[in-house]
Design brief:
Blueprint lengths: L14 H4 L2 H17 L3 H17 L4 H25 L3 H6 L4 E6 L2 E4 H27 L2 H10 L4 H30 L10 H32 L18 H24 L9
Antiparallel strand pairs: 1-2
Helix pairs in contact: 2-6, 2-10, 3-6, 4-6, 7-8, 8-9
C-alpha cells in the first residue's frame, strides 16, 4: 500500500506538531463539543474556516488524507440524505416557518428551512472532523501517552491509548494486504467491479481482518506480560514533552471557543440560529 493512503502520525516541525499531545487532545474535545452542541451557522462557518487554515499551517498534503476524507465524505452524504428521507420537514419544525422551493410528492417538498438545517449539519462535519484528523496526524503516540500520564492518567491507560493510535496504520496495511490477496484469488473489488461485488468483497475482507487483529493483540499482550508490564505503579518515558506557553494559550483559546458556543445558545434562545424570523 502506498504511503499516502495511510492515516497515522506524520512527523513535522510546525507549530501544531510542537504542541503537547495532551494539549491537542483537550483542544480537540473542547472544540468538538462546541461544534456539536450549537447550530449557529456563523459559529460553524468560523470554526470550519479555522480548521481548514490549521491544515494549511500543519503542512499536511491533500494526498496524505485524500483517501480518508473521501471515505468520510461518502458516509456524511449518506447521513444527509437519510435525514431528509426520514425527516423532510424537520427544518420547518425547528425554525417555525415554511418557505417551499420545490413542491414534491406528499411530505417530500424542498424547503429553505430544511436545506438550511442540513447545511448546518454539513458545517458540523467540516468544523469537527479536521480537528480529529489533525490530532491523529500530528501527535506522536508515545509522546501523547507520556503527556497523559503526566497529568494524572494511569500509565496503563495512557499506554493503551498510545497503542490504539499506533495501531491505526497497521490496520490499514492489513486491510490492503488482505484485499490484494482476495483479488489474487479472483475476487474483483476494484473500481472496475459493480457496487454489489465490491460490497461483497469488502465483507470478505472484514472477517480475516478481525482474526488477524485479534492474533496481533494476543502477541502484543503476551510480549508486555513477559516484560512485567504493569508491575510497578510508576514508569519512565523515553518520549516526553513539557508544557510550554503555547500549550497554555491553545488550551485557553479552546476554552474561550467552547464558552462562546454556549453564549450563542443563550443569546439565540436555543441551539439554532434562526435567520427566518
Amino acid at each position: 500500500m502506498s504511503q499516502h493512503q495511510m492515516v497515522g502520525y506524520m512527523p513535522g516541525d510546525t507549530f501544531i506538531h510542537r504542541l503537547s499531545g495532551t494539549t491537542k487532545l483537550l483542544a480537540m474535545i473542547l472544540i468538538s463539543v462546541a461544534c456539536m452542541t450549537t447550530y449557529d451557522t456563523r459559529f460553524l462557518l468560523a470554526t470550519s474556516i479555522f480548521s481548514l487554515v490549521l491544515f494549511k499551517v500543519s503542512h499536511i498534503k491533500w494526498s496524505d488524507i485524500s483517501f480518508i476524507v473521501k471515505f468520510i465524505a461518502v458516509f456524511s452524504i449518506l447521513n444527509i440524505l437519510a435525514v431528509y428521507l426520514f425527516s423532510p420537514e424537520y427544518g420547518t419544525v425547528i425554525y417555525g416557518s415554511r418557505h417551499v422551493l420545490v413542491e414534491g410528492v406528499g411530505r417530500y417538498s424542498i424547503t429553505q428551512e430544511q436545506l438550511f438545517y442540513e447545511f448546518n449539519l454539513i458545517l458540523k462535519y467540516i468544523s469537527s472532523i479536521p480537528f480529529v484528523l489533525l490530532f491523529l496526524l500530528t501527535t506522536n503516540p508515545s509522546e501523547f501517552a507520556s503527556s497523559l500520564n503526566k497529568i494524572g492518567v494511569s500509565y496503563k491507560i495512557s499506554y493503551s491509548v498510545a497503542l490504539a493510535i499506533r495501531y491505526i496504520p497497521d490496520i490499514q496495511v492489513a486491510y490492503y494486504d488482505i484485499s490484494a490477496s482476495q483479488q489474487a484469488r479472483g475476487y474483483e473489488i476494484s473500481k472496475k467491479a459493480s457496487i454489489g461485488k465490491r460490497v461483497k468483497g469488502a465483507m470478505q475482507i472484514v472477517f480475516p481482518l478481525i482474526l488477524s487483529s485479534l492474533e496481533r493483540i494476543e502477541v502484543i499482550s503476551t510480549a508486555m506480560e513477559l516484560r512485567r508490564f504493569g508491575r510497578d505503579k510508576k514508569r519512565t518515558w523515553y518520549s516526553e514533552k513539557k508544557f510550554t506557553k503555547n500549550d497554555f494559550l491553545v488550551i485557553a483559546f479552546a476554552i474561550v471557543v467552547t464558552l462562546l458556543s454556549f453564549v450563542l445558545i443563550y443569546t439565540n434562545g436555543s441551539r439554532f440560529y434562526n435567520p427566518f424570523q
